[in-house]
Design goal:
Layout (H helix, E strand, L loop, with lengths): L1 H26 L6 H8 L3 H7 L3 H20 L10 H18 L1 H12 L8 H27 L9 H21 L6 H14 L35
């Protein structure tokens, strides 16, 4: 009986979150109230407040369903046991881009966050949490790049913090622009190339191979031996 009640509560919570995604996507966050979500979900406002403190809390829960698995993957980038942390950072960045393209829920949530949410009034709390989430993401990327630097994979001039900000801006910008206009670029096909183009600029150049081959001898043509003519003695 207790398990059934718990399962029903979880089902109601997920139904509210699914409905919030749809209504936020249709009308925008600032133009959607909890009463609108309750009506669309077929539940009371009390049911929403049972699961969420306010609209900002509901919005965070909606985001976390998509973002947390990505954060958990990125958190391992600083693991010293990774043989190739740069390849792992690449995989994390590519995972985000590919999920946005292939997962309708992921695309919808990022679209709401990027283009249909205003950080005003009660949503100011979401802005603060968004900033904290960005800091955490940057920390994971930087940890992965520092890990790569320790293994000699980055060029000596590369600052891991600056490189992390650049990679985050690249991925964030690609998502924002592609969601705004999918015709911006074929993201599914080009995502890997975009990431590689950036990361290749961070890599340590392979050591130049010493040229140990013996110099080739060039065969000199034999000169015709001509007898030297001496000037006649006119004395």
């Amino acid at each position: 009986m207790v398990r059934r009640t718990r399962d029903e509560a979880l089902e109601t919570r997920n139904s509210i979150l699914d409905t919030a995604e749809r209504v936020f996507s249709e009308h925008g966050v600032s133009h959607t109230s909890l009463a609108d979500i309750a009506a669309a979900a077929g539940v009371t406002r009390g049911a929403i407040y049972w699961h969420f403190k306010n609209k900002a809390d509901l919005f965070d829960a909606m985001m976390n369903r998509v973002v947390l698995p990505m954060e958990q993957m990125a958190a391992r980038a600083a693991d010293a046991s990774l043989d190739d942390p740069l390849a792992y950072v690449r995989a994390c960045a590519l995972n985000v881009l590919e999920r946005v393209v292939s997962d309708p829920q992921c695309k919808r949530v990022f679209e709401i966050c990027c283009h249909k949410c205003e950080y005003v009034d009660e949503m100011l709390l979401v802005r603060d949490r968004h900033i904290e989430g960005r800091k955490k993401c940057l920390s994971h990327i930087e940890g992965g790049l520092r890990n790569a630097a320790k293994k000699g994979m980055l060029a000596p001039h590369v600052n891991p913090r600056h490189a992390a900000v650049g990679l985050h801006a690249l991925v964030d910008g690609l998502i924002m622009n592609w969601i705004l206009d999918p015709g911006y670029l074929p993201l599914k096909r080009e995502a890997g190339r975009m990431i590689d183009l950036y990361l290749d600029g961070l890599r340590r150049a392979p050591a130049a191979r010493a040229h140990t081959a013996k110099p080739r001898r060039t065969k000199q043509p034999a000169r015709a031996l001509r007898p030297q003519s001496r000037a006649s003695d006119t004395r």
